[in-house]
Amino acid sequence: MAARLCRLRRPLTAAFSSAAAAGAGQAPPAEPLTERRQAGGVRTIVLNNPRRRNALSLPMLQSLRRDLLHDVKSRELRVIVIAAEGPVFCSGHDLKELSSEDDVKHHSQVFELCAEDHVFLNFPTHHCLLCMQVMTLIQKLPVPVIAKVNGLATAAGCQLVASCDIAVASEKSQFATPGVNIGLFCSTPAVALGRSLPRKVALEMLFTGEPLSAHEALMHGLVSKVVPEDKLEEETMKISQKICESSKSVLALGKATFYRQITQDLDTAYKITTKVMVDNLTLRDGQEGIEAFVQKRKPVWSHSQEEKK
User: DSSP per residue over 207-241, as a string?
Assistant: First the structure.
């Protein structure tokens, strides 16, 4: 990473969105900040504010949260893909919204949305609470969430990628936490990065603001796969469709258990997962899968039976 060109530093710093950027003072875009579409069990949520580099403004976070939670218990929903319009996947927080000059009413909206966390910080940091809620929500959802990255992901945008269960990136994608360059250390993105990357790699990103290339991100575990840009949609859908072939109830149990055990010591983790394996056997789909294997046939999952009714 030390050999990366310093000429990248300036564009990455500029990648933060600010009301001082072009377009300040204009009315909000007529287009929705996120677009949600669903077909074949796959819900795609598109960050749709490329003019502002898909910054995680309060309205953007609210819209993303709504799309993630929309009919989330539906048997038809099997996987969620988060994508973005434009050359920047997500530039992180809208810095204007983190200013202490914002009015109390604006920050109160964030308080209300984050009240379940029972966390109240000093005035300039309230916006981060909603971001935290969205990031933790991703891992609490009962379906896998895939980040489809085609461009630059910085700060909280990089955090969003790290928070997803799977991440597929194009070869041109880059990942950075450049907050240190503008005097705002990426402390909340560090939570997700520190759980996805080796410590020294994460800290070099945080201390220098220098980017990881897509292939470096793959090598260190920030993303799952790197493909040519023209293959990104195909590879993401290939993974999504493979997930759709499995039992939704089993996947939900497995995902919840994975995140529950990963923070535990080894003995506790095995105790948790041993109990879950037994619980899994009691599920209708657990029994169906074993019977199908013994009988050498394809399993018929419970959600498939419901969808045919």
Answer: HH-PPEEHHHHHHHTS-SEEE-GGGHHHHHHHHHH
